[in-house]
Amino acid sequence: MTPSPAWAPDSWRSRPAAQQPIWPDEDELKRVHAHLTGLPPLVFAGEARHLTRALGQAANGRAFVLQAGDCAESFAEFSADAIRDKLKVILQMAVVLTYGAGLPVVKVGRIAGQFAKPRSSPTELVGGETIDSFRGHMVNDDLPERSARIPDPRRLVAAYQQSVATLNLLRAFTKGGFADLNQVHAWNQEFVASSTEGQQFEDIAEGIDRALRFMSACGINLTAEDSLHEVDFWTSHEALILDYEEALTRRDSLTEEWYDCSAHMLWVGERTRQIDGAHCEFLAGIRNPVGTKIGPTATPDDVVALCERLNPERTPGRLTLITRLGADRVDDGLPPLLEAVRDEDHPVVWICDPMHGNTFSADGGRKTRRFDDILAELTGFFRAHRGAGTWPGGVHVELTGDDVTECLGGVEDIVEGQLDQRYTTTCDPRLNARQSLDLAFAVAEMLRG
Ligand code: PEP
Ligand code: CO
Fold this sequence. Notes:
Layout: H1 26-38, H2 45-59, E1 64-69, H3 80-101, E2 105-110, E3 123-126, E4 129-132, H4 154-175, H5 190-193, H6 196-217, H7 226-229, E5 233-238, H8 242-247, E6 249-251, E7 258-260, E8 265-268, H9 278-285, E9 290-294, H10 300-310, E10 319-323, H11 330-343, E11 349-352, E12 359-361, E13 367-369, H12 371-388, E14 392-398, H13 433-448
Parallel strand pairs: 1-2, 1-14, 2-5, 5-8, 8-9, 9-10, 10-11, 11-14
Antiparallel strand pairs: 3-4, 6-7, 12-13
Helix pairs in contact: 1-4, 3-4, 3-13, 10-11, 11-12, 12-13
Bound molecules: phosphoenolpyruvate and cobalt (II) ion (CO).
Cobalt (II) ion binds next to loops.
């Protein structure tokens, strides 16, 4: 596809750009921008095209997408163990979904670039003082102090470097043996293995072992089957800070098309999806697979307009619509959106984000979500798709491999009084590894219908 001749990576600058930091030092920003422009891309355009094809299968009802990771990656909590444990839980969930529903699962991390956060309010009140809100480690620090919240462009480079190291390890793990199906038991972390859902996972793992032994006994050369020993794992993040995304956008030498090489897939959030705004302008010109969040205020016309703007050529897999309406709105709100897009013949991947429409503040002030509300939105999502004859193409969740206490409920039933025990997120509350696995079993059940 030829990009519009008028489009360039900086075209967004002529549009209103919501949620951009006010950088105190413009010269420093320019220096950083120039520096980033000269650094190597994180991903290759061919990989992004490969992901578009994989997502195209999900648009056509032949695959399911699991998009998962932190709400906000952190500069402070950056370690090989944290990356490995997050990957473990995502691989576990993917196995549960593949085994349970018999479908290929497209695995997309909110990782290796998810460092910027849109905020409902530009400031917050801390100890009687109004300070700037935390906007993700790509912009400022989360410490509740005035000086920590000053945007610093050098953080863009730090985010790039952390993304490079993260992606490098992910590539090593997923292609180097860790994601081998013979390792399936090793993904069950100790604190998960001892739980009901951990046991359920062990049952699946044993089933996989038996199947592999059976195929081998039949004379199939399993060593030669790459798909048993490695997985495709893709990266994604919200394309929020456009100075960063622009600097990593490169022209593909094979096709002459523009790709944002900061990640395989990019999405715009609920607060930046204005049809004439800077973020949609940016996404419209890059050839990566792109997504947009769809919140409760979006009308059927808005959604169809987003499809026209972001996928005028109607390429399956190019556009993913990530609905996050809330458990109490999904039954009424989702069907009209599905019908409108279906009637216009737009081939989209429909993904349910059951997290962002279900956030509330607990009594102690902690932001949290109830596991039951998350399940309820997912149930409504599947129901709405069955009704409209459209394909429920995936799920988008915020999770961590750690044993945190950030979301309420689940089999172990975390209650409000426990939120303070291990609440380590820098932004939104995440499912812990057990809750994530629990969710995967529930979704596999929903997929089986
Ligand atoms: C997010 O995904 O972390 C987020 C801020 O989502 P939304 O744009 O849907 O509010
Ligand atoms: Co979030």
